[in-house]
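Researcher: I'm preparing a figure for a lab meeting and need a structural model of a single chain. I don't have an experimental structure, so a prediction will have to do for now. The sequence is pasted below. Please return the structure as tokens so I can convert it later.
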Amino acid sequence: MFTGIIKELGTVRCISGLGNSYRLSIEAKDIVEGLKTGDSVAVNGVCLTLTGRNKNVLDFDVMAETIRATGLGKLGPQDRVNLEDALKAGSPIGGHFVSGHIDCVGRIRYVKRSADEASIELSFPERYSPLVVEKGSVTLDGISLTVGKVINNSITVYLIPHTLNVTTLGKKRAGDDINIEFDLIGKYVVKLTSE
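Model: Understood. Here is the structure written out token by token.
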């Protein structure tokens, strides 16, 4: 379980295929302290298991299904990724409950920037529309955000400069893909009320 509060930006060292799985290696600095093999780490919002560590380089084995269902397969060397270690009992929950299980990949329609804020509009597959509510929570590439506006199968989020500076959202452009995890509680409410 995570909160969507990014701890640091990591740098992809390599991603390579190993039969039906892939090896993803990421260089990090702050998050490595205390991590051990078997721990969960959210990489652009995707919950991955740490399978190895060499100093500041973290290794993850990633199944082909995860590559297919998320944006991880488009990563290459030197790409920056959002990193968050797993929530620990007693830690503050600054964002919202995030499982690290991506619902879908969305596409950024536009990015607008001004001196003190930015907004991003993105679209996603229509079947997920019931999971989104205005002023509700959404996780984009692992970042806990508030939905500012909902129109059909698109949402707009508003970002402060701090978020743009400490996450990968500051580099996103129209046409980029983004991992989306809809609010966990909202998903259960929709399931219960639709049965």
